[in-house]
UniProtKB/TrEMBL annotation:
Entry's Gene Ontology molecular function annotations: cytokine receptor activity
Highest classification ranks of the organism: Eukaryota, Metazoa, Chordata, Craniata, Vertebrata
Fibronectin type-III domain: residues covered: 141-235
Cellular localisation: Membrane
GN (gene name): GCSFR
UniProt name for this protein: Granulocyte colony-stimulating factor receptor
Length: 235
């Protein structure tokens, strides 16, 4: 029995032998045998964000986004993600909304729905469920939002932290008008509620106008999202 091996890892095994309690020489090494250990269920935390659009008085369209954050160095390989929802008047298995390998999915829910469940999975099982609660916007707003181009491929966005201090922030950025409607946006969650700004370096190109949105997050609510436009520095 071999101990201390990592899950979902390929190993090459060779053996040689000698006589026990008798004099002798070691044999030559055997041919190499390649083995792969079994997987373990993913051990990750999910940072999540969403956008909602009211389709009619009874239905809302939801775009859910997530980013897996490893909780251990050996986090387990992720093969896909599951999003489910259980109506309050229904028992049994949760209805499946998405089964995807992407980091987002779109689905429709009744307007009164306030929570879905997100899980990562592989052949060994699923991660600990992450409840995604659709927070109402009732918290204090940010103070003044400002931005500055540091170089052609980064933008600094800063703000005056509100009181009481948030538990974190969600920052979104993407091309501003006249970019096509539905152009993809980047997003990031900052868990340190005491910060007063952050540097955006992903997907920033020179000669472009960007729309940046910052939303403060509180324990049971969120503050109103605030927007600002900024040009990346010209080369």
């Amino acid at each position: 029995e071999l101990c201390g091996l990592l899950p979902s890892t390929a190993y090459a095994l060779q053996m040689r032998c000698t006589r026990w309690r008798l004099p002798g020489h070691w044999s030559n090494w055997s041919p190499s045998l390649e083995l792969t250990t079994t997987q373990r269920a993913p051990t990750v935390r999910m940072d999540t964000w969403w956008r909602q659009r009211q389709l009619d008085p009874r239905t809302v369209d939801v775009q859910l986004f997530w980013q897996p954050v490893p909780l251990e160095e050996d986090r387990g390989q992720i093969q896909g993600y599951l999003v489910s929802w259980r109506p309050s008047d229904q028992a049994g298995a949760d209805p499946m909304l998405c089964n995807t390998t992407e980091l987002n999915c779109t689905f429709q829910l009744p307007s009164e729905a306030r929570e879905v469940i997100l899980e990562a999975y592989n052949t060994a099982g699923t991660s600990h469920p992450t409840p995604v609660v659709f927070l109402e916007s009732g918290g204090p707003p940010l103070g003044r939002l400002h931005t500055m181009a540091r170089d052609p491929h980064s933008l600094w966005v800063g703000w005056e932290p509100p009181s009481p201090q948030p538990r974190g922030y969600v920052i979104e950025w993407g091309l501003g008008p006249p970019s096509p409607s539905g152009s993809p946006k980047m997003w990031r969650m900052e868990h340190n509620g005491s910060i007063a700004g952050t540097l955006l370096q992903e997907n920033i190109r020179p000669f472009q106008l960007y729309e940046i949105t910052v939303t403060p997050l509180y324990q049971d609510t969120k503050g109103p999202s605030q927007h600002i436009y900024a040009y990346s520095q010209e080369m």
